[in-house]
């Protein structure tokens, strides 16, 4: 009898502890796909801007190997667009690169293709040889003005700029390019 009472008391204590320690908030039931963002804009995080407005940010990565597509004086590279916060593929990044400008500078138009809209960015991208890895280049740009030249779908009416930092392996170019680029998409309205 004492043993049964102890087991019941221990069980009751565990139930009470479970209730008291349970997280507070809504419970979501269903498959993880139901929790996915309904709009690509839901992926962006809003932060206050220096002018008192709001800016929405989304850090993404283009990483992997691709076979370059050559068109006249341009090279087209296509990569999956990976959301850095989750590691999920959220779209496609397509770089349209014009022939290098003397001084190791590239004229690049990049399309960020989401399932419900596209952002097109244009900028000059600085490039330098990576002295630690022959055949690799370090790339980057920090635009001081808006660099998004086109926005459609859920992005229609948005402006902004996109920052870039990355590395590219050109040792097998023109047959293959490896890219590991970090992009920060900054949307304003």
Describe the structure.
This protein has a single domain (34-188), classed as AOC barrel-like, CATH 2.40.480. A hairpin with a 5-residue loop joins strand 4 (74-83) and strand 5 (89-98). It has one helix spanning 2-21; strands at residues 45-48, 54-66, 69-71, 74-83, 89-98, 105-114, 117-129, 136-141, 148-153, 159-169, 177-188. The protein is mainly beta. The protein contains one helix and eleven strands, in the order H-E-E-E-E-E-E-E-E-E-E-E. It has an eight-stranded antiparallel barrel with strand order 2-4-5-6-7-8-10-11. Helix content is 11%, strand content 52%.
Major sheet: order of its strands? 2-4-5-6-7-8-10-11
Task: Please tell me the overall pLDDT.
Answer: 84
Q: How large is the count of helical segments?
A: 1
The portion of residues assigned to helices is: 10-25%
Helix-and-strand structural type: mainly beta
The H/E string reads HEEEEEEEEEEE
Domain unit count: 1
Molecular shape = globular
DSSP strand tally: 11
How large is the share of residues in beta strands?
over 45%
The quaternary structure here is: single chain
**CATH-defined topology:** AOC barrel-like
In the CATH hierarchy, the architecture is Beta Barrel
Please identify the top-level CATH class.
Answer: Mainly Beta
N→C terminal distance: 71 Å
Reported for the largest beta sheet, the result is: 8 strands, antiparallel, barrel
Regions with little confidence, pLDDT below 50 for 5+ residues: 7-34
